[in-house]
Amino acid sequence: MERYLKQNILDDLKKKMVFIGGPRQVGKTTLALDILGGDETDPAYFNWDYFDDKKNLLKGKLPSGSSLIILDEIHKYKEWRNFVKGLYDKNKSAISFLITGSARLDYYRKGGDSLQGRYHYHRLHPLSLYEINTSPKPNDLEKLLRFGGFPEPFFSQSEREWKRWQRERHSRVIHEDLTSLEQVKEISQLELLAVLLQDRIGSLLSINSLREDLSASHEAVDRWVTIFENLYYCFRLRPYGAKKINALKKDRKLFLWDWSLCTDKGARFENLVAANLLKYCHYQEDTFGEDMELCYLRDKNKREVDFVVLENNQPIFAVECKSGQGDVAKPIRYFAERTEIPKFFQVHLAVKDYEIAHCRTRVLPFTTFAKEILKI
């Protein structure tokens, strides 16, 4: 299956370096090798974790005749930005550079000159419903909900393989990615935090509550959650502060990049929708340069709509998640009267598809929403 970013990356490589960020095991290296037209033994593929590749890179030994070089996980090198800048400036007329990493390459700027203007950055997301099937069916959604969107467990469709993969990935994120990029000593507490976050999906994240569970300071826990965000383990959404309602302004909602970790079915569906919407926003930003943001809407009387998508700080649509196909949720009716959100969608796991004009709302299956609205 060809990944959704491939053509955009090929186009961008004609102009600048391309960085691919995203969670561990989301398929970054597989995509890069597909673009290269080779495999991990290709001399144009350099993995910073492999000693010989590291040694050759530091000596400036690049394979002759290669028009594309892949640098994998090079952000683990402290001076990587200066190093990559030098490689690019010296070879840019003859060689394109594709750089991948499981941490945010736009965040870990450890020393060196800025690479501003020399690269385009793409965030590779897990498989989404539309990427799996451009005419998605309920069965596709059931599989995606159960096994998540990471390629290996999704394509295995095996409970046993999913469990083994989860255990191995959890260990690698904590013991390899985190310790190689951050100076942290509280490994056992971070392991516990990763588990605690799984029970807070779709909820307002209370750092104070986590602080009590972890017996740590507020500042430390907030920093640890930020580290997990930078490693693409979780993401937080801020509230959308609509002007005419008494909206929340600070509390953020938590979601995971791997929604299959959520045991509650309703929260898992909400997390899947959140991840698909975030993928849509990141694609619009990374490909078209739009200023996008995914938020949620909630007032101080606890009326809430799950998601609001902003473009250039203006709402373009809102989404409410429901397992069933019942009536339009009361908060949608309330916020439709009091906000300037132009369109509301109530997505569900059933089959009904209808509109209610006076509250600018369409109730529809998430499979239809993915096909007609997201398309990514």
How would you characterize this protein structure?
The protein is of the alpha/beta class and 376 residues long. The protein has 2 domains: 6-123, Rossmann fold; 129-374, no CATH class. The chain is 41% helix and 18% strand. It is built from 14 helices and 13 strands. A hairpin with a 5-residue loop joins β8 (292-298) and β9. α8 (159-181) crosses α9 (187-198) and α10 packs across α11 (218-230). It starts with 5 loop residues before the first helix and ends with a helix.
List keywords for this structure.
376 residues; alpha/beta; Rossmann fold; 2 domains; 5-stranded parallel sheet; 13 strands
Short overview:
The chain is an alpha/beta fold. Helix content is 41%, strand content 18%.
